[in-house]
Write a structure and sequence with these properties.
The structure holds 2 protein chains of 2 kinds. By secondary structure, chain A is an alpha+beta fold. Chain A folds into 3 domains: about 5-20 and about 495-645, Aldehyde oxidase/xanthine dehydrogenase, molybdopterin binding domain (Aldehyde Oxidoreductase, domain 4, 2-Layer Sandwich); about 30-135 and about 200-250 and about 255-290, Alpha-Beta Complex (Aldehyde Oxidoreductase, domain 3); about 375-480 and about 650-800, Aldehyde oxidase/xanthine dehydrogenase, molybdopterin binding domain (Aldehyde Oxidoreductase, domain 4). Chain A is about 30% helix and about 25% strand. In chain A, helix 10 (about 335) links the parallel strand 14 and strand 15. Chain B is of the alpha+beta class. Chain B has 3 domains: about 5-50; about 55-130, Roll (Ubiquitin-like (UB roll)); about 135-230, Orthogonal Bundle (DNA polymerase, domain 1). Helices cover about 30% and strands about 15% of the residues of chain B. Chain B is built from 8 helices and 6 strands; from the N terminus they run E-H-E-E-H-E-E-E-H-H-H-H-H-H. Chain B has helices at about 45-55, 80-85, 130-135, 145-150, 160-175, 180-185, 200-215, 225; strands spanning about 20-25, 55-65, 65-70, 105, 110-115, 125-130. In chain B, helix 4 packs across helix 7 (about 200-215). Chain B starts with 19 loop residues before the first strand and ends with a helix. Classes of the chains: A alpha+beta, B alpha+beta. Bound molecules: FE2/S2 (inorganic) cluster (2 copies). One FE2/S2 (inorganic) cluster (FES) sits at the interface of chains B and A. One FE2/S2 (inorganic) cluster sits at the interface of chains B and A.
Chain lengths: ~800, ~230
């Protein structure tokens, strides 16, 4: 078996046969005998006092087993924990209970729970619960919420609703701005998004009284973290809870946090001695599962006319919603502020972040988490700067890129970029997209557009479509991460990853990973790693994850960390197994260990490849079942558990080019071409890498063009169904052209970097830059996302185009 | 907190009733049954609906070649019937507004969103779910399933059964030779959050080619009904 073919091969995913036949096992699919169903009553008010709750009528309905209010269980459940409490800023973590007790703080806040024999009966009973509320004034936007006269969510526990005020700075920003030849500034809004995993969240808990143990099936990206947080909330010891999460239908960050209702389900199962199941419906998902982004940013850039960027200043108002969700404080700070210099050698940088509580659903990590927000403002302001100094946006980027020979490169915020060739990906993207020709086509189109509109005298009636070209270059911090660094930022745990690799007596291999892939394909890529490392057949490797009783404590899947970090743990476990196997092989071959060669799954004495022991033979011997005894002093068995704490993060990067056509009659934007050139180091399975990039681009494009979670001023989520929240279909999205360069991470044993979020990070600014580019002759500097036809139509109908080539427009700042 | 009896598990009125199997793999026998309602039977009148709402109703459906008879609440959604009463968990639920298509099945030859019909409306109908597309086992895949696999047309897999059923309808009933645009339009009632659709479109293109060449060679295309015999 040619081992090298595994690593880097486009191997079909082993996850798929079960999933394409309907044999996946998602949380909602698990059925237990005597299972009963929970449903949560959620607040219709964004901010109100709970005056009374009457559950009598509900309790009398058929099938209803119990109705419980926040008051009933106040003494039984601890507040929902927040696991990322900042260290370099004072942080106020309010007490937020799994079921609210005297006050509700957002529409969707749970106040009571029903358990009934069927989900339908539970839903009926919700309608029979009578709650008397005293409505209070609500505040939904973060800039108003931290003003002195704003209503307070937690009274004096969180003055001004300000959970934290975080700052980072380096260099001399005042001087950079004082000496700048040119400055640009802009208010940029990174709108709130709904993660929208197609599988809603849910949990099923079963208590086993004979062992005093709980089993919890849950939609989770990190089963061990869920177990720990459930234990903290319920007081049930961690070792008495088993969390199982088999197939998960997408997460995108929304299944990282531990939510109050999950703990309620666990408690109910224990108290009722019945398996209790709760599955969200979509509306419930939209109002109560975390949201993403929601920043208002004030951005300023200082530079020179030759294109050099000398400084950047950012003030961010981050909307955190009504409670501090599991990782929420780290997202708009550590994962955002530290990345604000991006791929550029900007030395002077200043960022302050106001983390504000509002009467809305909590905001936490959504695909990219902080890094898309950072890349968005940087790539937007760089384009605005380029236009102001009349320079092609690609040239401004090239001028400021950290050069490829400057790695490892320490950024002004203290990160050490491992490796990169930023100009390489940009040049490749320009080449693939035919950038030069595109600019010519754009100019020609503009000319005929202006001619046509002059001839007809009715500009708005022209059939011509304008072309816009948008670039976006990014570098992403991922592979979270070295525990010493993440701990210093206030994260409650280290971010290492675990792996157990077990070679069975027959030579078959089981891999137990602390990562928990849910679409990213690591059941396949991890088998590829093991097959390559141990020289065994791919089919002889099983990858196990998502069960806390099987897998050593693991941190889970998010932040593009699983392949680099969990993959790293697997590599080192395999290598330790090989070391031991070499000793056994030497013993079996009656040779010195130093003389043993390992090649393609076979051990032999150097120079005599004809007489070899396979890994299976060595494994057989290791269990004492072989013909010879083990070398003296060596423990039997052939398995290893490794906890891999990476020495650094990994930093994938790339450049995307988006070409749009703007219909001047309707304001409709159509993506004509989308080119992504990404560099995630060595690729285990390019097919899976491409798939990750595609999906990421789609989500980023969706933010740019269509999606927005909208609240009215009273705190109602207006976009609370999939009819209102515009997740794009296949008909709206384009095909993508993907390519890659390969700059391995020097500190990773396989040279790999993560790729799960790159598409989302890069694509949003690429699309917005393209649309603003198309409209630059209308005096447009910025349009707030999403760039829906109406907004663009209004611009087109209210302003006159000026005859300037798109790359030489000077817009006021 | 256990006012209604913590250990209560007795069957109350609207818990799923015991099943009455009506004859396993029925082959041709179902053709003798009278069709009571078509897909568009929803239109047969408010009064019907009201009458139906007043009590439980016994329905008979043929799913993946097997006939089931069950007594159901009139308000029971078809998707819940398929999942919870028949135990066919491959049909998924991703929304409550008929947008996501995770629940797509073939009913009476048409693709329908099974969350948007009542089980009673399916009385007398023939339904094909993802489990019936090939033989429900992972060793034997329908060309569309194979194409999704080969083209990396899925990631988390939650949307996948619905998309495969929609593609099945598109390619076998609607348009065996669709353009890319027709494919994109044809699956625009199904949402996928993971893949960005690129590889799904490729998968359906490749499945279309496979199905066409299979037809050209006059090979038997495996449909659930035939495959189940
Ligand atoms: S569950 Fe049927 S369309 Fe979403
Ligand atoms: S594969 Fe996850 S939603 Fe489509």
């Amino acid at each position: 078996m040619a081992v090298a073919t595994f690593f880097g091969a486009r191997v079909n995913r082993r996850e798929d046969p079960r999933l394409v036949t309907g044999n996946g096992l998602y949380t909602a699919d698990v059925v237990l005998p005597n299972m009963v169903h929970a449903a949560f009553l959620r607040s219709p008010y964004a901010h109100a006092r709970i005056k009374s709750i009457n559950t009598e009528k509900a309790k009398a309905l058929p099938g209803v087993i119990v109705v419980v209010t926040g008051k009933d269980i106040a003494s039984k459940l601890n507040p929902v924990p927040c696991a990322w409490q900042l260290t370099n800023a004072e942080i106020k973590v309010p007490k937020y209970y799994p079921l609210e007790i005297d006050k509700v703080r957002y529409v969707g806040d749970p106040v009571a729970v029903v358990v009934a024999e069927t989900p339908y009966q539970a839903a009926d009973a919700l309608e029979a619960i009578e709650v008397e509320y005293e409505p209070l004034q609500a505040v939904v936007d973060q800039e108003s919420a931290c003003k002195p006269d704003a209503p307070l969510l937690y009274d004096n526990d969180v003055p001004n609703n300000l959970a934290f005020h975080w700052k980072i700075s380096s260099g001399d920003v005042s001087r950079a701005f004082a000496e700048a030849e040119v400055t640009v500034k802009e208010r940029l809004v990174n709108q709130r998004l709904l993660p929208t995993a197609i599988e809603p969240r849910g949990a099923l808990a079963q208590y086993n009284p004979s062992k005093d143990e709980l089993t919890v099936w849950i939609t989770s990206q990190n089963p061990h973290v869920h177990r720990l947080l459930l234990s903290l909330m319920t007081g049930i010891p961690e070792h008495k809870i088993r969390v199982i999460s088999q197939d998960v239908g997408g997460g995108f960050g929304s299944k990282i946090p531990c939510y109050g209702p999950e703990a309620v389900v666990v408690l109910l199962a224990k108290e009722l001695l019945l398996p209790v199941k709760w599955i969200e419906d979509r509306r419930e998902n939209y109002v109560s599962t975390i949201h993403g982004r929601d920043h208002v940013e004030y951005v300023e850039l200082a530079g020179k006319f030759d294109g050099t960027i000398t400084g950047i200043k950012v003030i961010t108002y981050a909307n955190l919603g009504a409670w501090l969700s599991t990782a929420a404080p780290g997202v708009p700070t550590i994962l955002f502020g530290t990345m604000l210099s991006g791929p550029y050698k900007i030395k002077n940088l200043e960022c302050e972040v106001f983390g504000v509580l509002t009467n809305t659903t909590a905001v936490d990590a959504y695909r990219g988490a902080g890094r898309p927000e950072a890349t968005f403002i940087l790539e937007r302001i760089v384009d605005i700067f380029a236009r102001k100094i009349n320079m092609d946006p690609s040239e401004v980027r090239i001028k400021n890129f950290i050069p490829r020979d400057a790695f490892p490169y320490t950024t002004p915020t203290g990160l050490t970029y491992d490796s990169g060739d930023y100009e390489g990906t940009l040049r490749r993207a320009l080449e693939i997209s035919g950038y030069k020709d595109l600019r010519e086509e754009q100019a020609a189109r503009l000319k005929s557009f202006l001619q046509e509109s002059t001839e007809t005298g009715k500009r708005k009636r022209t059939k011509e479509k304008l072309i816009g070209i948008g670039l976006s270059s990014y570098v992403e911090v991922c592979g979270l991460g070295p525990s010493s660094i993440v701990r210093s930022t206030g994260f409650a745990l280290g971010l290492w990853e675990s792996a157990t690799v077990r070679v069975h007596p027959s030579g078959k291999v089981s891999v137990f990973t602390g990562g928990h892939p849910h679409g990213q394909g690591e059941e396949t890529t991890f088998a590829q790693i093991v097959a390559s490392e141990l020289g065994v057949n791919l089919e002889d490797v099983e990858v196990v994850h998502g069960d806390t009783d099987k897998v050593p404590f693991g941190m889970g899947t998010y932040g593009s960390r699983t392949t680099p970090v969990a993959g790293g743990a697997i590599v080192f476990a395999c290598r330790k197994i090989k070391e031991k196997a070499r000793k056994i092989a030497a013993h079996l071959l009656e040779a010195r260990e130093d003389d043993i060669v390992f090649d393609s799954g076979r051990f032999y004495v150097r120079g005599s490849p004809g007489t070899a022991k396979t890994l299976a033979e060595v494994a057989w011997a290791s269990y004492g079942a072989g013909s010879s005894e083990l070398p003296s002093g060596l423990e039997p068995g052939l398995e290893n558990t490794t906890f891999y704490d990476p020495p650094n993060f990994v930093f994938p990067f790339g450049t995307h080019v988006c070409v749009v056509e703007v219909d001047t009659e309707t304001g409709q934007v159509k993506i004509k071409k989308y080119v992504a050139v990404d560099d995630c180091g060595k690729q285990i399975n390019p097919m899976i890498v491409e798939g990750q990039v595609h999906g990421g681009i789609a989500q980023g494009v969706a933010q740019a063009l269509w999606e927005a979670a909208v609240y009215d001023k009273d705190g109602n989520l207006v976009t609370s169904t999939l009819s209102d929240y515009a997740v794009p279909t296949a008909y709206e999205l384009p095909s993508y052209e993907t390519a890659s360069t390969e700059t391995p991470s020097p500190h990773h044993p396989l040279g790999i970097k993560g790729v799960g979020e790159t598409g989302t990070i890069a694509s949003t600014p690429a699309v917005v830059n393209a649309v603003c580019d198309a409209l630059s002759n209308f005096g447009v500097k910025n349009i707030d996302m999403p760039l829906v036809p109406e907004k663009i139509w209004r611009i087109l109908s209210s302003s006159s185009p000026r005859l300037e080539s798109p790359s030489s427009t000077t817009s006021p700042s | 907190m256990s006012e209604r009896g913590a250990s209560s598990s007795s069957s109350r009125e609207s818990s799923p009733p015991h099943s009455t199997e009506a004859g396993g793999r029925s082959g041709g026998s179902s053709s003798k049954r009278k069709k009571k309602k078509s897909v568009s039977g929803a239109q047969s009148g408010i009064s019907d609906l009201e009458a139906a709402l007043s009590g439980r109703k016994t329905i008979q459906v043929k799913v993946n070649g097997r006939v089931y008879q069950r007594e159901v609440e009139p308000r029971l959604l078809l998707v819940d019937f398929i999942r919870d009463h028949l135990g066919l968990k491959g049909t998924h639920i991703g929304c409550d507004t008929t947008n996501c298509g995770a629940c797509t099945v073939i009913l009476g030859g048409k693709s329908v969103k099974s969350c948007t019909m009542f089980a009673v409306q399916a009385d007398g109908e023939e339904i094909l779910t993802i489990e019936g597309l090939a033989n429900g086992k992972q060793q034997e895949l329908h060309p569309i399933q194979k194409a999704f696999w080969d083209n990396h047309g899925l990631q988390c897999g939650f949307c996948t059964p619905g998309l495969i059923m929609q593609a099945y309808w598109l390619l076998t009933s609607e348009n065996p030779n669709p353009t890319e645009e027709e494919i994109r339009l044809g699956i625009s009632g199904n949402l996928c959050r993971c893949t960005g659709y690129h590889n799904i479109v490729k998968a359906i293109q490749s499945a279309a080619t496979m199905l066409r060449s299979a037809r050209a060679q006059e090979q038997v295309v495996v449909t659930a009904r035939e495959g189940r015999r």
